[in-house]
Amino acid sequence: MSDSPADIFQQLNELMKRLMEQGLKEQGDPNRPFAYGFKIVIHDGSTTETPVEGTEPAAEPEVTSSEGTIEPIAEMYTTDDDVTVAVDLPGIEKESIHLSLINGTLTIIAGGNQLTSVEIPTVDADSMQSNYKHGVLEVKFSRGKPIRID
Prior knowledge:
Layout: H1 5-27, E1 38-41, E2 69-72, E3 74-78, E4 82-88, E5 97-102, E6 105-110, E7 114-119, E8 124-133, E9 136-142
Antiparallel strand pairs: 1-2, 3-4, 4-9, 5-6, 6-7, 8-9
């Protein structure tokens, strides 16, 4: 067993994956989508990004914090008929979750300091269904009906 940080994190990741899979087996459907983990993004207030010439500068975030934001891990599952995005949001109140789908990007804002975006394939935006249960948000879209060419 190695003591290097990369190896330790890999071992922790494998342990977490096994625990999650075991927990899902005990909960019922082992094929149910799930996501776990997060990234912590620390923003340095002293640095600024220079916009690319010819583009509009990015809007400043409404709330900046020296502690940064948490970026939940989102997993996408696709079938021939639908697209499902699963995001782990433990401890978040359902009322503080906001979803938007703009130009093929699903953006999820939760609790004011958690933000993640997922590029999704072409879907029927009006078919969106969401479910938040036990700290896991699932957002499901229909891919729409195929167009028949005569």
